[in-house]
Amino acid sequence: MARVIHILTREGDPLPASVIAAQETAGHETRVIDLTEVDPNGDYSILLEEIYAADSVHVW
What is the count of structural domains for the chain? Predict the structure, then answer.
């Protein structure tokens, strides 16, 4: 089982949802971080922790 992080940078993009669903069906541990909902001056330390802990990172 791979640990996959998805970083969303655009609102309303349908492709990530289908890829994430397929990975979850395959049994991968998936995490989604939506940067469209984050304050630009916010703390990104959680994002960095998730990136370093993941086996694969996808940016949409």
Answer: 1
pLDDT digits (tens, 9 = 90+) for 3-60: 999 999 998 889 999 999 999 999 999 999 999 888 888 888 888 999 999 999 999 9
Q: What is the dihedral of CA 25, 35, 60, 51, to 10 degrees?
A: -70
Q: Which domain holds residue 16?
A: 3-59
- By DSSP bridging, strand 56-59 and strand 29-34 are unpaired
Indicate the helix (H) or strand (E) that contains 8. Answer: strand 3-8
